[in-house]
Every structure is written in C-alpha cells, then in structure tokens.
C-alpha cells in the first residue's frame, strides 16, 4: 500500500491547527502509520529541501522549518501521495482552492502550513529521511473493510 510523508509546519503548530489538519487526513480514510512531534535540525531541513537549495527563499525556508516544532507523519492509503496533495492544495495559499488546507488557513507562500511529498519516489526518500527503521507502525483499522471493497 502507498505511503506519503506529511509534515505540519511550525506556523500551523503555533496557530493551534494540528488537530484540524490531522482530522482531514483521518476523515478521508487514510491510515496513520507514523507520527512524531519534533524540532528539526538544520541538517535535516537542508536535506529535505535539497532540491530547492539554489532558490532565493531557501535560507529563509530552512530558518522557518527549524524555528519551532513540527509534526512529522506517515500516512498510508490507496493513491495517498496524490490524494494528500489535493487535501493540502496549491503551494501558494493565495492560489489554493477553498476546501484545501492551504486555501482555508493560509495567506502567503512562505507560511503555507503543511508539507506533502509530491511523488511516490519522493515519499520514499522523505520517509527514509524523517523516520528511522521501526518508527513506522503497521496496524489494521477496523474501518478498512468499509473503506475498500
Ligand atoms: P510544495 O510544498 O507545494 O511541494 P515546493 O515548490 O516544493 O512546494 O516548495 C517547498 C516549500 O518552499 C513550499 O511549501 C514553501 O514553504 C516554500 N516556498 C516555495 N516557494 C516559495 C517562495 O516563493 N517564497 C517563500 N517560500 C517558498
Ligand atoms: Mg515540494
């Protein structure tokens, strides 16, 4: 089954939106298989955003992600990588549709509340970066039979 990496960023944590954000993934029917509340080291932030290292906003992005705790999560489900990106919305909250997390709760791209892997290969890389062997927990929600035929 497909898995993706989701992180609730410092702005959403500080604004008291952890529960609201998790609720959207839970209510959709995805399965939580890993979660930790943590401070992010500069090393991890730089590795996570390595593909953006030449962007002008990169230093500010690393400062932001390391400024306050985040909630790092692994979610599982059929098509979860693409499905989670739909729940999250477009990168800029100004462009994100209402009904998405960024569209409903954000106003500016530098404070867009949440991260979600953009492809299956990216999800594998990011889950490997953020979670150690044994930190992900497989389990069988009773609702599975009511979510999948
Ligand atoms: P994504 O988070 O929707 O996948 P990316 O293009 O991968 O978007 O950018 C990663 C993160 O970098 C964004 O979520 C946002 O936090 C930050 N970012 C992207 N573009 C800008 C910008 O123009 N100014 C400030 N921060 C940006
Ligand atoms: Mg991205």
Structure description:
The protein has eight helices and four strands; from the N terminus they run βααβααβααβαα. With 149 residues, the protein is an alpha+beta fold. A four-stranded antiparallel β-sheet has the order 2-3-1-4. The radius of gyration is 15 Å and the shape is globular. Helices cover 40% and strands 16% of the residues. The relative contact order is 0.24.
What is the element string, with H for helices and E for strands? EHHEHHEHHEHH
The whole-angstrom Rg is 15 Å
In terms of DSSP E residues, the strand content is: 15-25%
**What ligands does this structure carry?**
inosine-5'-diphosphate, magnesium ion
Could you report the average pLDDT, rounded to the nearest whole number?
98
> What is the count of β-strands?
4
Task: Specify the helix fraction band.
Answer: 40-55%
Based on Cα principal axes, name the global outline: globular
How would you characterize the largest beta sheet?
4 strands, antiparallel
How far apart the termini lie comes to 15 Å
Which secondary-structure class do the elements indicate? alpha+beta
Strand arrangement in the largest pleated sheet = 2-3-1-4
Query: Spans of 5+ residues with little confidence (pLDDT < 50)?
Result: none
Tell me the layout of helices and strands:
Elements: E1 3-8, H1 10-14, H2 18-28, E2 31-38, H3 42-48, H4 58-65, E3 70-76, H5 80-88, H6 101-105, E4 114-116, H7 120-130, H8 144-147
Antiparallel strand pairs: 1-3, 1-4, 2-3
Bound molecules: inosine-5'-diphosphate and magnesium ion (MG).
């Amino acid at each position: 089954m497909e898995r993706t990496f989701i992180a609730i960023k410092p702005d959403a944590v500080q604004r008291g939106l952890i529960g609201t954000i998790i609720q959207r993934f839970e209510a959709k029917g995805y399965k939580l298989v890993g979660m930790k509340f943590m401070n992010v080291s500069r090393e991890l932030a730089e590795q996570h955003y390595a593909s953006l290292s030449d962007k002008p906003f990169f230093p500010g992005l690393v400062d932001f992600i390391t400024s306050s705790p985040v909630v790092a999560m692994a979610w599982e489900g059929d098509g979860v990588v693409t499905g989670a990106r739909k729940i999250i919305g477009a990168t800029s909250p100004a462009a994100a549709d209402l009904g998405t997390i960024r569209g409903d709760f954000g106003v500016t791209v530098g404070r867009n509340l949440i991260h979600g892997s953009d492809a299956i290969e990216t999800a594998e890389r990011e889950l490997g970066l953020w979670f150690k062997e044994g930190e992900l927990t497989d389990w069988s929600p009773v609702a599975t039979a009511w979510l999948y035929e």
